[in-house]
Amino acid sequence: MNDISIGGFPLDLLALQLVTGVALGAIYVLVGIGLSLIFGLMNVVNFAHGAFFMVGAYVGVFLYGYTGSFWLSLVAAPLAMGLLGLAVERVLVRPLYGRGIDDPLLLTFGLSYVMVESVRIAFGLTGLPFGAPPELRGAVDLGIGYFPLYRLFLIAFSLTVVGALWLFIERTSFGLVIRAGARDPQIVQVLGIEISKVWLAVFGLGCALAGLAGILAAPLQGVTPEMGIPVLAEAFVVTVVGGMGSLAGAVLAGLLVGIVVAMTSLVAPDMTKMAIFALMALVLLVRPRGLLGRAGALG
Which residues pair with 223 in a beta bridge? Predict the structure, then answer.
C-alpha cells in the first residue's frame, strides 16, 4: 500500500485521514442530532446550541480537574447541560411558542452571547488546556499506520450513543410520542398526552447531546469560550445537508462533513470552511430537502 499514491498522497496517508474525518464527523453527528431533535419536534432553531457545546466542555474540564475522573465528567457534563436546557426551555423558550420561528431564534441567539460572556468572566479569555485521559492516550496500529487511541474511542463511543438514541426513539413508547409529536402535535394532545412535557424533555436531550459533544471534543481542540461558534455553523450545515429534522440524515451528513473537512485540510487547509459550504450548496442543488429530508421530521 505504501507504493500506491493518489494525487501525490500515499494511500496509507489518505486512509488515515479518512479515519480522522470519521472521528471528527462523530462530533458533528452528536451536535447535529441535538439540533435536529429540537428543530424536528419543536420547530425551534436553537442558536445557543454551540454555547451549550462550549459550556459542556468547560463543565467537563472543571469536574475532571476537581475529581480526576474523565468518566465522571463524561457523564456529568451532558447531565448538567440537559438540566440547563430544561430550565432554558421552561423559563425562556416556552413563553415564545406560537409566536413564529423568529422570536425563539433571536432569544437563543442572545442567550448564546450571555453564556459565552459568562464563561469569559468565570474562566478568563485564554481558555483551558485539556488532554486525553491517561488510559486513552497513545496510538494503535491499524495496519495502515498508527492512529490515536482517543479518536478511535471517540468513534466507538459516539456510535454507541447514536445506537442507543435510535433504540430510544424507535423502540420505546416515549420515542413513539416524540415521533408522533414531530408530525402532528395536536393529535398527540387530543390523545391526552401533554405535548409541552415532551418538548421540555426533547429540548433537554438536545442540549445534553451538545454538552456531551463538547467534553468529547475538548481533548482534540482545547477549551475556549469561542469553541462553540464554528461548531454551531458546522452543525447547521450538517442539519441542512442531512435534511431538516432527519436524524438518519444528521448521522450521514455529520460523517460526510467530517470527512470533507479532514480531506480538505490535507490538500488545502485554507479552504476547509469553504469546502463544507460548497458541499451544502452542492447537496441543495441536487436535493433541496437534504440527503434524507424526504423521510420527514425525525425520520
Answer: 128
CA distance 152 to 114: 35
Domain boundaries, the chain: 23-286
CB 250 within 8 Å of CB 34: no
d(CA 86, CA 93) in angstroms, rounded, equals 10
Q: What is the DSSP string of 209-251?
A: HHHHHHHHHHHHH-B-TTTHHHHHHHHHHHHHHH-TT-HHHHH
- The amino acid occupying position 109 is F
Predicted TM-score of the model (pTM): 0.90
CA distance 71 to 126: 25
Fold topology of 23-286: ABC transporter involved in vitamin B12 uptake, BtuC (1.10.3470)
Q: Where are the beta strands (DSSP E) in the chain?
A: 5-6, 9-10, 139-141, 146-148
Cell of 17: 485521514
Helix (H) or strand (E) holding 27: helix 11-42
Tens digits of pLDDT across the chain (299 residues): 556 777 677 788 888 889 999 999 999 999 999 888 888 777 788 999 999 999 999 999 999 988 889 999 999 999 999 999 999 999 999 998 878 788 888 999 999 999 999 999 998 888 888 888 888 998 888 888 888 999 999 999 999 999 999 898 888 888 888 877 777 777 777 777 788 888 899 999 999 999 999 999 999 888 999 999 888 888 889 988 888 777 888 899 999 999 999 999 888 888 888 999 999 999 989 888 888 875 444 54
Number of neighbouring beta carbons within 10 Å of residue 241 = 28
* Residue 263 CB neighbour total at 10 angstroms: 18
